[in-house]
Amino acid sequence: SAVISQKPSRDICQRGTSLTIQCQVDSQVTMMFWYRQQPGQSLTLIATANQGSEATYESGFVIDKFPISRPNLTFSTLTVSNMSPEDSSIYLCSAVQTGANVLTFGAGSRLTVL
Amino acid sequence: QKEVEQNSGPLSVPEGAIASLNCTYSDRGSQSFFWYRQYSGKSPELIMSIYSNGDKEDGRFTAQLNKASQYVSLLIRDSQPSDSATYLCAVNRGNFNKFYFGSGTKLNVKP
Q: For the range A44-47, what are the long-range contacts, defined as Cβ-Cβ under 8 Å and sequence gap of 24 or more?
């Protein structure tokens, strides 16, 4: 299965700032997704990262708050903008490898907002 | 109604017993079904996938699917303390579609 690298693995940020998380996959993938996992909770889908076009956001998530880019088949970024303590969470990049219908996850980025 | 529902647990079983984890889903168009295991502080990892009604076995794990009842289960035989984790059920409507996750069931296997 695809190997997904995310960075940073963790960060502590101040309220009102923005942070960009990078996701790199080692092979071509069809779909890339960004999930959020708040403490003790399950995975919530933020958006589908579409190559070369605007991401498709789930209900409750908007582009101004979570801008996403996917300039090519193997790379995507998620920005968490104007952060507040409620944004403290683990953000997970995931992907479906070409030819397979299996979702693989990166190690996650643990974000703490003070 | 949530896309995927699971009992949050915790489910406690003694070592060597069978652990039974259950999941229901709301969209009859769902075509693919998955069980992920997530250890504390780690990202989810795939255990099993199942696409057709019936049972699918892989080592100590058996996934069961009943599309008529919109029900998926995971059986873990000879449970080990190392199986203690949160188990997430996920469904997908087919290729190029999103994956929806249940809230997860926490399993504790007691030595």
A: A45/B98, A45/B99, A45/B100, A45/B101, A46/A78, A46/A91
What is the per-residue pLDDT across A42-72, written as a single tens digit (0 to 9) for each?
899 999 999 988 999 999 999 999 999 999 9
Q: What average pLDDT values come out for chain B (111 residues) when binned by 10 residues?
A: 85 97 93 94 94 96 96 97 96 80 95 93
- Report phi then psi at B82, rounded to 5: -70, -10
Q: Name chain A contacts of B43, Cβ cutoff 8 Å.
A: 92, 105-108
Mutation to test the A interface, candidates B43, B88, B95, most A Cβ within 10 Å: B43
Least CB-CB distance to A102: which of B49, B98, B104? Answer: B49
Token pair recorded at residue A39: 């403490």
